[in-house]
């Protein structure tokens, strides 16, 4: 509790120091804006309704990309974990695709899907796909050999073994992948908008940059950070809820 | 007619060499056999061969005359480790063999509760395995193997994690249940007294071979006083000597 208080106090002190320094040294608002100005812009943007549509667009893109990427990643992970031939066939490509900077494909997606939401959703989905694929594959293959033997002894079908043994026992690993995907989804959505968005928080940053409005850019950083913290906490909460059983291994 | 027949069964691994060497054994229907031997001599491997979890490299295992080709429905197996599903309650773990076949009925649930009572865990049905002690977990694993009432039961040191008193109670419960259902049993243990108390016949394994066979001609049902009778102690001593390789009388001859 004391630590929390101290860390909040540190934040306030930092902001105060920043404010005082900028005022005293007369730093241009173009380079580093005053915290008080940023907060005022943020408040005006939220209360005046300027930021809300952008926040909404980014949230929707993130949610859609996350849902699509995670679903496809999970299903592909199950498929590759269950069918060794496919795994051996695709594994080199999966390893190769890990090192491809997915965001660099953004311009290509704009050619394919045009400016706007679709290309951003596709980038976000692609980024979320990999952690889910990796972790699902790992999680399903890490099942305790004793438990596999038990299911073999009980003559469980392949589907039963998947649904009642492999997925539940791999769940902690799969959910860790989800937590990574959530953070990446925000990066994907914002950067996707940098490249090809008309609306959204990322597009607004580019617009603010065009107007040399550093104050607005800082306000947008804050909104993005808060959005990220909320979805991360939501994912962590989901994880805690699903793993509320005394889980081990 | 014998229920389980093991004929010249052998097993090996590429880098470990021979683990089991031409095992011959048979268990009559409703008989209770124990398998003793030092750690690492191949007891678990033999049990898995009989269960159909491992294919024999040589020879054959038959259950009711049929060659074993894989895990069969009539076999219950208690593994050396409890092997419970941590994300399921004790009751769900008990009902796992049933629920993999069909939706558990209220009768199955009652049966599971009864078995839980029998192994001394009534009231813990709603707990998760992570909330049980090691000995309690192994009792759940035992009850799980009994829930489908299989005609053949293979047990791999099921009582190793228990205190002496609980162990004696469970031994009596197991004998009672097996007598009631005429279950055929192969029971692996380290404990000489346990083998003598439970079994009609004890096989001694040494380095992947069956070296001795000891019949246990004690009347059934066996009660607490049997454990302290001179006959019982004499049999334990004989088994001990067989494990040391000294008892010539019961040595298994081996052609070639
Ligand atoms: N997968 C394996 N690969 C190589 N060697 C193995 C394998 N499994 C078992 N062994 C070896 O086979 C031998 C017999 O193993 P097994 O598990 O049957 O012994 P055990 O008699 O059940 O021992 P314990 O009483 O300690 O449980 C051991 O020496 C072991 O090292
Ligand atoms: Mg063993």
TrEMBL record, chain A:
It is found in: Cell membrane. The chain crosses the membrane at residues 62-83, 104-133, 173-195, 216-235. Signal peptide: none annotated. The keyword Transferase does not apply. Keywords: Cell membrane, Membrane, Transmembrane, Transmembrane helix, Transport. It is a multi-pass membrane protein. It comes from the Bacteria. InterPro entries: MetI-like, MetI-like_sf. Residues 55-235 form the ABC transmembrane type-1 domain. Belongs to the binding-protein-dependent transport system permease family. This is ABC transporter permease.
Automatic annotation (TrEMBL), chain B:
Gene3D superfamilies: P-loop containing nucleotide triphosphate hydrolases (3.40.50.300). Pfam families: ABC_tran (PF00005). The keyword Nucleus does not apply. This is ABC transporter ATP-binding protein. InterPro entries: AAA+_ATPase, ABC_transporter-like_ATP-bd, ABC_transporter-like_CS, ABC_transporter_ATP-bind, P-loop_NTPase. It comes from the Bacteria. Belongs to the ABC transporter superfamily.
């Amino acid at each position: 509790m004391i630590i929390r208080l101290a860390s909040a106090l540190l934040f306030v002190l930092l902001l105060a120091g920043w404010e005082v320094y900028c005022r005293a040294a007369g730093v241009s608002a173009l380079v580093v804006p005053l915290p008080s100005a940023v907060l005022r812009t943020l408040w005006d943007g939220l209360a005046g309704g300027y930021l809300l549509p952008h926040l909404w667009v980014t949230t929707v893109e993130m949610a859609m990309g996350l849902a699509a990427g995670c679903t496809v990643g999970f299903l592909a992970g199950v498929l590759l974990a269950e069918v060794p031939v496919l795994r051996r066939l695709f594994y080199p490509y999966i390893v190769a695709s890990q090192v491809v900077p997915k965001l660099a494909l953004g311009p290509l997606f704009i050619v394919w899907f045009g400016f706007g939401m679709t290309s951003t959703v596709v980038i976000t989905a692609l980024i979320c796909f990999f952690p889910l694929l990796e972790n699902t594959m790992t999680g399903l293959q890490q099942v305790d050999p004793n438990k596999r033997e038990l299911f073999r002894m009980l003559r469980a079908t392949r589907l039963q073994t998947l649904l009642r043994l492999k997925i539940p026992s791999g769940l902690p690993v799969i959910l860790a992948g989800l937590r990574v995907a959530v953070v990446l989804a925000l990066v994907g959505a914002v950067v996707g908008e940098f490249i090809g968005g008309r609306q959204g928080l990322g597009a607004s940053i580019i617009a603010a940059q065009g107007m040399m409005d550093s104050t607005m850019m800082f306000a947008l950083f804050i909104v993005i950070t808060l959005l990220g913290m909320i979805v991360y906490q939501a994912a962590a909460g989901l994880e805690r809820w699903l793993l509320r059983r005394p889980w081990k291994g | 007619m014998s229920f389980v027949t093991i004929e010249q069964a052998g097993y090996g691994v590429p880098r470990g060499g021979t683990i089991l060497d031409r095992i011959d054994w048979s268990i009559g229907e409703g008989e209770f056999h124990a398998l003793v031997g030092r750690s690492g001599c191949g007891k678990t491997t033999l049990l898995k061969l009989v269960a159909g979890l491992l294919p024999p490299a040589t020879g054959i295992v038959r259950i009711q005359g049929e060659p074993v080709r894989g895990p069969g429905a009539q076999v219950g197996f208690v593994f050396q480790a409890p092997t419970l599903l941590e994300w399921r309650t004790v009751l769900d773990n008990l009902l796992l063999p049933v629920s993999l076949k069909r939706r558990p009925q209220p009768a199955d649930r009652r049966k599971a509760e009864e078995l839980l009572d029998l192994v001394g865990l009534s009231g813990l049905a709603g707990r998760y395995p992570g909330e049980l002690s090691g000995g309690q977990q192994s009792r759940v694993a035992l009850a799980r193997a009994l829930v489908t009432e299989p005609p053949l039961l293979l047990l791999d040191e099921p009582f190793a994690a228990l205190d002496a008193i609980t162990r004696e109670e469970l031994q009596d419960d197991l004998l009672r249940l097996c007598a009631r259902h005429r279950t055929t049993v192969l029971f692996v243990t380290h404990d000489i007294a346990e083998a003598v108390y439970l079994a009609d016949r004890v096989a001694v394994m040494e380095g992947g071979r069956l070296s001795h066979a000891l019949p246990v001609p004690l009347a059934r049902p066996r009660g607490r006083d049997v454990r302290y009778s001179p006959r019982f102690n004499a049999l334990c001593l004989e088994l001990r000597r067989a494990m040391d390789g000294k008892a010539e009388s019961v040595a298994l001859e081996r052609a070639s």
